[in-house]
Amino acid sequence: MKYFVELPEVWITEFLENDPDCYGYWVSSLTQSWQKGYADNCTLAWTNYIDVVRRLRIHTDKPIVVDVDMLFNEPSIAATIAKELYAVGCNMIVVESKRFPKVNSLTPNALVLSTPDEFCRLINKVKTTVPKLEVIARNEYLVTTKNIETTYNISKRAIRAGADGVVIHWGADANTNLLQETLIRLKNDGIKTGIIPTKYLDQVVNGDFDGKADFSILGNICSSYIRHTFSHQSVKTLLETPCMFEPILERVGSHEPQGQKTLIVLGAKPDIISGEVLLENPENVKKFQAQLGDYYSLIFVIDSKSKVSIETSERVHIARVEDSIGQVDSLAAAREYMNTEYVTIVYANIEDQVFKYLSNKGATFLDYTFAGVFNVKTDVLLSMLQTADPSMSILEMASHNNIKLTVVEK
User: Fold this and answer.
1) Is the predicted pLDDT of residue 89 greater than 70, yes or no?
2) Which of 16, 97, 284, 305 has the fewest C-beta atoms under 10 angstroms from its C-beta?
3) Which residues are CB-neighbours of 107 under 8 A, at least 6 positions away?
4) pTM of the predicted protein model
C-alpha cells in the first residue's frame, strides 16, 4: 500500500524524503489550521496551501496531495483553486462531500453533507478545468448513513463525473466492517480507492486493508507527534536540553542552490623534483580533462613559452603567464575565465589519489601535508588576489585569510 504522510511543514522532507515507506506528502487542512492558529473550518486562506505546495515542490519529486475540503461548494471557485494548486506542483486533491463551512470528519455526528448532485457537479467542473490534476472524491456518506449500497452508488457517480478515485472516509470507530465491504465492491469494479485510517491505523499496519485500498493517507500523524512531544515540555526542560542548532544550520545551508565550478590547473613552473613542465605531458593533461564532467570549465595555466598539445574549446581554456614569480601571479592570469560561482584550484603535480578529494571545502591536506587542492567561492578568491603578494603560494594566501582546512588520511 502506498502511504501519503502528513506534512506539517517543508522541513519534514529532511527526515521522510529517503524513507521508502513515504510515497508522497499529504497537506492536511486540520493540521495546517492548527499550526497557523485557525479553526479547522476553511478560515485558513487557500493561498496558504498554494504557498506550502510551491515551497515543497522545490524539495521533492514525490507526489503531493492536498486536502481541499469541499472547495466552498462553488464549482467556479473550486476550479480556480485547483488550477493554482496544479500550477505550483500539486499532483492530487481530495475533495470532500461536505457542506461549507467545514466540520471535521472525526466528529461524524455534526457533519452536514452535500447532495450527490452538488458533489458530482463540483468534481466535474474541477476535473474538466484541470484534466491533468488527479481528483479524488472523498465520500463521507458511509459514516452518516451506514449504508454500503448508497455509498457505493454515490462513489460510482463521482467516477462518472470525472473523479480519478474515491476515498471512503470512516471516522466513527475501529469497527471497519462496513468500510471494508464498501472498498471491496469498488475494487471489484477497478476503481482506485484510498483510506484515512486515523481511528483504525493498527488494522492497516496488520494488513487488513491490503488489496482493498490502493493508498492510505496518514493524516495528522506528524503534527500529532510534534504536539505530543511539546506537551511534555516546559521552559525549564527546554533550557536543560542542549541547543543542537548545528544540524539546523547545515540543513538551511543545503537549501541554497549550488552554482557551477571552474577547475584551474596551475602548471606554469617546472616540477621541483623532475624539472618537467607537467602540462607538456599529454597523459598528465588527460587526468584533468577527465574531471570536466563535474565542472563548467577547465583552465590550464602555463608559461607563455611552454609547448602544449591541449585542444581548447568553449569549456577548456589555456591561460598564459610570462615568467611567473609565484602561484598567485600565475593564478591571476586565469581571471578572465573565472565566470562561475566557485573555483577549484589544483597543482599540476597532485598525486593520483588526490583526485578523489577535488570537491573538499577549503584547502585539502593529506596526513597534514598540503595536497595541492583549494576550493573557494570566486568572489572571495578575487578579493584575496587583490591584496595577496604575487610571489605567494596558494597555501600561503589561504592561510593568511583563515580559509578552512580539510584533512584526510592517505
Assistant:
1) yes
2) 305
3) 171
4) 0.80
